[in-house]
Design goal:
Layout lengths: L22 H16 L15 E5 L5 E5 L4 E6 L11 H4 L3 E4 L2 E4 L10 H12 L6 E4 L2 E6 L2 H17 L10 E4 L2 E3 L2 E4 L2 E4 L1 H9 L6 H12 L1
Antiparallel strand pairs: 1-2, 3-7, 3-8, 4-5, 6-7, 9-10, 10-11
């Protein structure tokens, strides 16, 4: 049997330096590498484009498991009042008029309640960050990734500089930095992949049994979001 790793063609190759190991661990790692090489598990390469640092894991029986560090670190950022960071054109302001006890006002910024607002905000955010392959954006939520702490901090610095240049502001209380796990849209993203959050699972399990078409649609919407 053969397994294939599919990598999108636009993903840039990453090569990371060797990590220093304690001498006692280093000897065991090299012994295990020799065993792997003799067994045909690994092959020596001189000039690779990709390389992950070795992560030795000592098992309960004292033996060693050699892993590559392919973990992902995430920063979760939240744009402050994302809609209101977008100016409405003069010809659009008349469509965002509100009538209040203090008078009638045009909105100069995009506001909630306009049916096109989510799409406009999403398109604007994606356009703003289109040159950053390490960022995933959903309206006002931004996820910045990196293969290790050093790479992650470099990516984060570039994204923050770009956001500052664009005069975009973030909500400090909702930002999460250097986390191995983050929840977004009812899903948890971590080193094990993508899986439903416990809160969402509980909501589905505790949802009442539907008794009509309307309730059935609500349950299906809960499951599929």
């Amino acid at each position: 049997m053969e397994a294939t790793i599919h990598v999108p063609p636009n993903v840039q190759a990453r090569f990371y330096s060797v990590r220093l190991l304690p001498y006692a661990i280093k000897v065991k790692v090299e012994q295990e590498l020799n065993r792997f090489q003799k067994a045909g598990v690994i092959t020596s390469v001189e000039f690779p484009d990709w390389a992950a640092p070795v992560v030795p894991v000592v098992k309960s029986n004292g033996s060693l498991r050699i892993c590559g560090d392919y973990t992902v670190i995430v920063n979760a950022l939240d744009l402050t009042h994302a809609y209101q960071q977008l100016h409405l054109s003069l010809k659009s302001q008349k469509y965002a008029t509100i009538n209040t006890s203090k008078g009638i006002f045009y909105y100069e910024r995009l506001r909630f309640g306009i049916s096109l607002a989510p799409g406009i905000c999403q398109c604007t955010t994606e356009t703003l960050l289109k040159n950053f392959l390490v960022v995933v954006a959903y309206i006002d939520d931004l996820l910045v990734t990196g293969s290790n702490k050093e790479q992650h901090l470099q990516n984060f610095d570039r994204v923050m500089t770009h956001l500052k240049y664009a005069a975009a502001t973030l909500k400090r209380s909702k930002n999460v930095f250097l986390t191995p796990s983050v929840e977004c849209l009812g899903q948890v993203i971590d080193n094990n992949g993508l899986h439903p959050s416990q809160e969402k699972v509980c909501a589905i399990q505790e949802a009442p049994e539907p008794t009509n078409v309307s309730e059935l649609k609500s349950v299906l919407g809960l499951i599929n979001t």
